[in-house]
Design a protein that fits this description.
The protein contains nine helices and ten strands. By secondary structure, it is an alpha/beta fold. The protein is globular and about 50 Å long.
Length: 245
C-alpha cells in the first residue's frame, strides 16, 4: 500500500476533530474523503501532509511509518493542492518565482525547462509566467497551484477541495485536468470534498465522514448503483446534483 492510516485521532485543544479513522490507498489509486463541513476530512488530509502535530495512531507512506516531523524527501514526494488558490499563492511573487521556489528548495536542476513544461501540462499560456496571482482568473490560479505541486515530480497528491472556490463553469475543466494528470503521471491521490459528484468524477473508491469518523467506505460504482448503506451517505447522495460519469 502506498498510504496506510490506522486508528488516527486528532485533537485541537479540547476539540476531538478526528476519531479512530482507518483507511488504505494503493499505489496509483485515487481515493476520496467526503463529508460535510466540520466532518474532519480536511484535518485527516492535513495530518497526513504533516501540517498537524497533535495526533495519535499510525500513518505510513510506502511502508515507512510517518512521525510528527517529516523529511525533505517526504515533502518532495507528497504535495498538496489547497482549496483557495489565491490564498495559497504568494501575492508578491510572479508565477515564474512561485514555480521556481520548490525547484530551489529541493535542489532540482533544469529549472527553465521544468517551468515551461509545468505550464504546458496545466494548459497555461507562456504569457502567464511573469504575471502575479491577482492578474489571473481563479481557474488560472488553481492551475498554477497544481503546476507548483507537480513540478518536483511527487508520487502522492493530496487535494483539499480543489474546485470548491471556483466558478461552476471552471470546475469541470480543472477536474478533467486533474484526472488527466493523475493518469499520465500514475499519481496516488487523496481527494477531500463535500461534493459527492466531484469525488465520483476522480475517485474509484471513497470514505464518507461524519463527526470525525468514517461511517462508510465503498466503491464509486456501488455508490452510483444506489448501494450506499449508511443514512448519512444516502443524505449526501440526495444532495448531490449529479453522480453520472
Amino acid at each position: 500500500m502506498m498510504i496506510e492510516v490506522r486508528a488516527l485521532d486528532v485533537r485541537f485543544g479540547s476539540v476531538h476533530a478526528v476519531r479512530d479513522v482507518s483507511f488504505a490507498v494503493a499505489a496509483g489509486e485515487s481515493f476520496g474523503l467526503v463529508g460535510e463541513s466540520g466532518s474532519g476530512k480536511s484535518t485527516v488530509l492535513r495530518t497526513l501532509a504533516g501540517l498537524a502535530a497533535d495526533w495519535t495512531g499510525y500513518m505510513a507512506m510506502d511502508g515507512q511509518p510517518l512521525g510528527r516531523r517529516r523529511s525533505r524527501a517526504f515533502f518532495r514526494r507528497v504535495q498538496m493542492v489547497f482549496q483557495d488558490p489565491y490564498g495559497s499563492l504568494h501575492p508578491r511573487q510572479t508565477v515564474d518565482r512561485i514555480l521556481a521556489e520548490p525547484l530551489a528548495v529541493h535542489g532540482i536542476p533544469d529549472g527553465e525547462s521544468r517551468i515551461r513544461r509545468a505550464l504546458e501540462e496545466v494548459a497555461l499560456p507562456r504569457a502567464v509566467r511573469f504575471r502575479y496571482p491577482h492578474q489571473l482568473s481563479g481557474g488560472q490560479r488553481q492551475r498554477v497551484a497544481i503546476a507548483r505541486a507537480l513540478i518536483a515530480d511527487p508520487t502522492v497528491l493530496l487535494l483539499d477541495e480543489p474546485t470548491s472556490a471556483l466558478d461552476v463553469s471552471v470546475q469541470a475543466e480543472v477536474l478533467n485536468l486533474l484526472a488527466d494528470l493523475r493518469a499520465a503521471r500514475q499519481l496516488t491521490c487523496i481527494l477531500v470534498s463535500h461534493n459527492l459528484a466531484v469525488v465520483a468524477h476522480l475517485c474509484g473508491r471513497l470514505a464518507v465522514m461524519q463527526g470525525g469518523r468514517i461511517v462508510e467506505t465503498l466503491e464509486t460504482a456501488a455508490l452510483r448503483a444506489g448501494k450506499a448503506q449508511h443514512p448519512h451517505t444516502r443524505e449526501l447522495v440526495a444532495l448531490s446534483r449529479d453522480l453520472e460519469e
